[in-house]
Protein: Co-chaperone YbbN
Amino acid sequence: MTQQPFSRPGAFDLSSLRRPTPSANDAGGPGSGGADGSVGSAYSIEVTEQNFQGVLEASMTAPVVLVFHSPTRSPESTTYAAHVTSVVDQFDGRFLTGVIDVDAVPQIAQAMQIPQVPLLLILLDGRPASQPIPGLLSGEELDTLFQTIGQQLTAQGVTGRHQPRTAPPAEGAESGVDPRYAPAQDALEAGDINRAVEEYQKLVDGNPADVEAAAGLAMAKVLQRTQDADLNAARVAAAEAPDDVDAQTMVADLDMLGGHVEDAFNRLIALVARTAGDDRARAREHLIGLFAAVGNDDPRVLRGRQNLASALF
Structure:
């Protein structure tokens, strides 16, 4: 198998594809299950018109592997799609599989100019990041492909992971405070923010799929960044420098602490919309961290993700 170069931006423009607004029962983003298209895997989603925008947005955190298949025209392609999903699951969130039945959603395949099934297409930052990969690859070829992409991403400084679509409770966990989080919670109660960050970081390093630890770490970092901040001075600085990423993210953090969650999101979404390059990337990354602190199932986060996608595309 010839390795495809992995690049950031993509090879094709998806701007012509209609992006429907997710319905109340179809959030479309990673981290939810069942109604949003879960196909029985921690890191896969059945792609529909309704959740396609969420799949695009998910690729801004880590790559999404789209696998196109047709159960009527090519039954082996459907078997292959399940095989790709199984291989991707072994990478613990480094990738998310988006399974696309071209018979059920032909408009997506047409918009993306998919010539045949089976076919793989890898998205990053909402765009294809490699040439399409047609045909049936063996398990060994798939493993090599995803390992190579993972190494290239790491070399580029891209280390994000998808949250699992289903998070089973920890073995032996009971109602009340999970003992895994006790050291971090104790540090927060003692006012030792730096130690709380360290404790949450240990949990995330040990299990990147731990959604609660990731959320705790994100919020602890907000507390850490704002320990010595002066709200009035921060607002003055942000007003005087509307495109200064540091000034704007500081006010967004302070808004979060004050309970003005949507204000924080909207400030950074507007910053993403009017900046470019490294500044845009920093603003987007900071916003995604705030999303994690609030929780992916929160309706304010779902709206924020939609608005972020609109700002980017």
